[in-house]
Design brief:
By secondary structure, the chain is α+β, with helices and mostly antiparallel strands. The protein has a domain of 146 residues. It contains 27 helices and ten strands. It has a four-stranded mixed β-sheet. A hairpin with a 5-residue loop joins strand 9 and strand 10.
């Protein structure tokens, strides 16, 4: 039973820690992009003022919550973004992990819900994963929290026990010692696997078009202006897209199976992680789906099994073995050795105090134990009293900053740091810093209460070693169990809401019952599960918005591009996911209530037209939704006119002739027949080309 529970209900703490770092970086990158468009989407000077958004949502009976609704000006929004950046940064480094994890989830929800017209599948998936993992201990590895915990526990005495690894707990012992509710074994772990598996399955079941079978789907998709990123637009005719299409499509069938396979966990989960990373990078780099691809890339880390981590953590390399000779009278030196011991899971480091110089302690691979050898002649009393010494297996030595680099190279997870410290230029700075600390190591040890940590009992005035016992009183244990049970129940309800909503939103034939309570959870958390991405295959027509603006200097300008208006989309769309999602939505029939706010925004400026000079002010603009089919002239339909309108595609100052917005399928889908009135075709000489 235990292997079954571990397979479906447990995520290795190291996987959680690596996921936290990757996802935190993705959140910071996403915030940086949103920051570039903070005025347009997060202030009342933009396309959707907060009062307008709230009013229209209330009229439609679809209220949402966002902390950013309280901010009106650009300055207020900037303050909010700095606060969110602080949350994200603390979450990424793992400081007070659970608290800042929850705050980061609130922050992302506030960013997404501030303008629901600009949200998309990437936001829904990112929120689903971020909120689900709130119930898991993401700070238990590769974090400031875990480092501080190791610092608290790393206070062993005396010196002769420093090379004894038998007292370090293994994975099972660590899990058993955790307080209730802080274990990586949780219903939330099952929820993460289920959300990822269902996401892949939903895409696979809905992408039924021939373009996915013949390998042309991605190439066709990257010809769609609002869908392709600038990198994707440049690669739209690349021969690599055929094989990549097949990898992306078939991985969506394979990943759910690999996550569920209960045997060969290391191999199966490793393959699932690789496919998730490839799948995620494809969408992250080539499309305007925002956090969708980056969430999958980060989630690739979360599915790595404990078996794989154990192989990595225990991979012993005889060439990496180092004997570290440290100052026995230095409290800081001894404490750092104690701390390094807890990271050295590969038995690469052998510690020896500098008051033992008769023989050199070293690791014998054949005997699998520490043995005594001849001390290298280069290791003298004067040398070891003034610097740390790292002795290599061949008897050569490294001192000062070079020894520090050698030690990091031997410890799993720190090899990159060791190589960086050895780089020319950086090694010099490291050496100067080492000398500065080494000369003051006694004073530093005293200030930190470590001056007497090498003896059995602390001296007067020194801090005693902290109590490392994890035992708690029965009353506190009962409280922990109660709160843990509540967390598990909340996790189960949230996961159920995400799964059920995903099934119903994508009309999957999985027989999930409808529930108003679960639907409410899904709506307020903005985990709507809409996965209409290139389904059933990429659209046959390219659809995008063109703005025909007219300035005081009598110049025609498209505020979306900063150039003269063109009907032919022959350049990459470089405004990113927020604008892509927003433009897909704003021209639809059900979004007409939001169009006046866009008109007001365009009367002042545009994302690529700041209109800072008086003659650059916009007097009028016509908004066109353009449908372009290969081999045919683009067909524009005017959505609205503001002010005097434009003069490139219309008659300046002429009364607006409303054809009305159309109801279109979700972008990325194949187009259905539209029953609206056909838009007039423009003369060929007006089709601008570069």
């Amino acid at each position: 039973m235990k292997p079954f529970i571990n397979h479906f209900f447990r995520i290795d703490p190291r996987s959680l820690g690596l996921f936290r770092i990757l996802f935190g970086l993705a959140l910071i990158g996403d915030l940086s992009y949103r920051w570039d468009h903070i005025e347009a989407f997060y202030s009342n000077e933009g396309v959707l003022p907060n009062h307008n958004h709230i009013f229209n949502l209330k009229q439609a009976g679809k209220l949402v919550w966002s902390a950013l609704h309280a901010f009106s000006s650009d300055g207020e929004a900037t303050f909010g973004f700095f606060l969110i950046l602080f949350f994200y940064a603390c979450f990424t480094i793992g400081f007070k992990s659970r608290a800042f994890h929850a705050l980061s989830a609130v922050a992302l929800l506030s960013l997404v819900a501030r303008n629901t017209l600009a949200s998309g599948p990437g936001d829904y998936l990112a929120l689903a994963i971020l909120i689900t993992t709130v119930f898991l201990p993401l700070g238990s590895a590769f974090s400031v929290d875990s480092l501080l915990e190791r610092v608290r526990l790393a206070r062993e005495t005396p010196h002769d026990k420093l090379n004894d690894r038998s007292n370090l707990p293994n994975v099972d012992q660590t899990d058993e010692a955790r307080l209730p509710g802080w274990s990586p074994r949780s219903v939330a772990a099952f929820g993460v696997f289920s959300i990822l598996g269902l996401t892949m399955l939903a895409l696979a079941m809905k992408q039924t078009g021939a373009a996915w079978k013949d390998g042309s789907a991605l190439s066709k998709a990257l010809h769609l202006t609002l869908f392709a990123s600038p990198m994707g637009f440049d690669m739209k005719d690349s021969g690599l897209l055929g094989p990549l299409t097949r990898v992306v499509y078939y991985s969506q069938w394979a990943i759910p199976v690999l996550l569920a396979v209960p045997v060969a966990r290391g191999l199966a989960r490793g393959a699932a992680a690789l496919l998730l990373a490839v799948h995620g990078l494809t969408y992250a780099l080539l499309t305007n789906l925002g956090l969708f691809g980056w969430t999958l890339v980060a989630s690739a880390a979360i599915v790595v099994s404990s078996d794989t981590w154990q192989v990595w953590a225990q991979r012993h390399d005889p060439k990496r073995v180092r004997t570290v000779i440290y100052d026995a009278d230095c409290g800081v030196c001894f404490f750092l050795c104690q701390l390094l011991k807890r990271f050295d899971t590969r038995n690469h480091l052998v510690f020896q105090p500098n008051d033992q110089r008769d023989k050199l302690l070293g690791w014998d691979d054949k005997k699998q134990k520490i043995v005594e050898r001849e001390m290298p002649s280069a290791v003298t009393e004067d040398l070891v009293s003034g610097t740390v010494v790292a002795v290599r297996p061949d008897g050569s030595i490294a001192t000062r900053a070079e020894a520090v680099s050698e030690v990091f190279l031997a410890v799993p997870g720190f090899a990159i740091l060791g190589r960086v410290l050895a780089l020319p230029g950086i090694s010099g700075l490291t050496g100067s810093l080492y000398d500065f600390v080494a000369k003051r190591r006694t004073d530093i040890s005293v200030e930190l209460g470590l001056a007497a940590c090498g003896v059995e009992k602390p001296a007067d005035g020194a801090k005693a070693a902290p109590d490392t016992s994890l035992e708690v009183s029965p009353a506190r244990a009962a409280r922990y169990r109660a709160t843990a049970g509540l967390r598990e129940a909340l996790a189960a309800v949230f996961v159920a809401s995400v799964l059920v909503q995903t099934i119903h939103q994508n009309e999957l034939p999985l027989g999930a019952p409808k529930s108003a309570l679960l639907a409410s959870f899904s709506w307020w958390s903005q985990t709507r599960g809409d996965l209409a991405i290139l389904t059933p295959e990429p659209a046959a027509t390219n659809e995008y918005m063109v703005l025909d603006g007219y300035t005081r200097a009598e110049a025609s300008i498209d505020p979306l591009t900063g150039k003269e208006p063109q009907l032919v989309a022959n350049a990459a769309f470089d405004l990113g996911p927020l604008w892509a999602n927003y433009l897909r939505q704003i021209h639809l029939q059900e979004q007409t209530a939001y169009q006046p706010a866009l008109r007001t925004y365009l009367s002042k400026k545009g994302p690529h037209w700041p209109a800072e000079a008086n003659e650059e002010k916009i007097l009028g603009v016509d908004a066109y939704w353009v449908t372009a089919t290969a081999g045919a002239e683009p067909t524009p339909e005017r959505i609205f006119r503001h002010g005097r309108g434009g003069k490139v595609f219309g008659q300046l100052g002429a009364p607006e002739q409303k054809t009305g917005p159309r109801r279109l399928p979700t972008p990325g889908q194949a187009n259905a027949e539209d029953g609206g009135a056909p838009a007039p075709r423009l003369p060929t000489n007006l089709l601008k080309k570069e």
